[in-house]
Amino acid sequence: HRPAVLVARQVFPDTVDRLRQHFDVEAYADSALIGREELVRRLQGKAGVFVAASEPIDAVLLDACPSLKAVCSMAVGYNNIDVAACTARGVLVTNAPGVLTETTADFGFALMMATARRITESERFLRRGEWTHWSYDLMAGQDIHGATLGVLGMGRIGQAIARRGALGFGMKVIYHNRSRLSEAEEAAIGARWLTLPELMAQADHLVIVVPYSAATHHLVGREQLALMKPTATLTNVARGGVVDDAALAEALKAGQLAAAGLDVFEGEPRVHPALLEVPNVVLTPHIASASLATRRAMAELAADNLIAALTGGQPLTPLNPEVLASA
Ligand code: GLV
Ligand code: GLV
């Protein structure tokens, strides 16, 4: 008989159709995030689940859903999934790395540019009807070309952003990461490794792309923000919680940095009210990977993984391949 799976999020109808060729599919029809109790209820008897970046898959949920064999996410970040708890119960976990790298890097760069050049602040000014004359310093911001790009988190996306800065805009690239790039990788983009405090102090434009974990919670907080240049910008396309949003709002108000661009927030979709009050921050609703082509590729990869995981194939991007080895 065919395995039963839950698609816990609305996704492209043809992705669901493809899954129906292999599985008895229950598709959650609401566009909002599924509630925890609803998720547990609908997972009863299901062998697999298709998720994205927000469904909390933890030990309590796993113990309440003993039929579950595979959790396949269309996101690259997987801080919503307790991978160790899954591994301990023989549940395979897959994410969607690679397919969104360039699209997310495009957005990170765009958000950084919008932040430095005050694009959304300028548009609000114009729409409010306040544009009465040209002025020498009207909405004057910070240059991108030739400036120093600081990349916090030098994984695939960080490297793709660094390449854009170095090759496209003549930026000097500095970075901080737990592990250093190889000398050849550093040489290819002229990137220099620094400690986190050095990075904070030297970056003209800091772009954050480090995954969220207990180790990166509030990695950028009051102390780090105090090190930034008053002309610097900070852009976060990683995860809420890597930056202390309350401390950031205070630092912006105090003029400790020039501006911030944020695609992710602590406790999103709520946004810290203090951030909504400062004009020099560009706010977007967690859309860094949202080109249609890339969202499609992410959904397809998650579907491919789910099909492989439950039909005896080789999942493409397993996070705990040891589960496959011991199955
Ligand atoms: C989105 O935030 C992702 O992790 O893919
Ligand atoms: C606020 O809306 C501003 O841009 O000043």
- Small molecules (ligands, ions, cofactors) in the structure: glyoxylic acid
Compute the number of helices: 14
For this entry, what is the oligomeric state of its chains? single chain
> What is the tally of beta strands?
12
Helicity, as a percent range:
25-40%
Tally of individual domains: 2
Distance between the termini: 20 Å
Structural class: alpha/beta
Shape descriptor reads: globular
Low-pLDDT parts are: none
> What is the typical, i.e. mean, pLDDT?
97
Fourth-tier CATH superfamily name of the largest domain: NAD(P)-binding Rossmann-like Domain
Order of helices and strands: EHEHEHEHEHHEHEHEHEHEHEHEHH
> What is the correct CATH architecture of the largest domain?
3-Layer(aba) Sandwich
Which class of the largest domain in CATH terms? Answer: Alpha Beta
The CATH topology annotation of the largest domain reads as Rossmann fold
Side-by-side strand order of the widest sheet: 8-7-6-9-10-11-12
Structural features, described:
Keywords: Oxidoreductase. Residues 109-288 form the D-isomer specific 2-hydroxyacid dehydrogenase NAD-binding domain. The structure is a single chain. Helix 1 (13-20) packs parallel to helix 13 (292-310) and helix 5 (101-116) packs across helix 7 (156-169). A seven-stranded parallel sheet has the order 8-7-6-9-10-11-12, with helices on both faces. Strands 2-1-3-4-5 form a five-stranded parallel sheet. It has helices at 13-20, 36-43, 59-64, 83-88, 101-116, 119-127, 156-169, 183-189, 196-202, 222-225, 245-253, 273-277, 292-310, 322-326; strands spanning 4-7, 24-27, 48-51, 70-73, 92-94, 148-152, 172-176, 191-193, 205-208, 233-236, 259-262, 281-283. It has 14 helices and twelve strands. Strand 3 (48-51), helix 3 and strand 4 (70-73) form a beta-alpha-beta unit. The mean pLDDT is 97. The protein folds into two domains: 4-97 and 292-326, Rossmann fold; 101-283, NAD(P)-binding Rossmann-like Domain (Rossmann fold), CATH 3.40.50. It is globular, with a radius of gyration of 21 Å. The chain starts with a strand and ends with a helix. The protein has 327 residues and is of the alpha/beta class. Helix content is 38%, strand content 14%. Bound molecules: glyoxylic acid (2 copies).
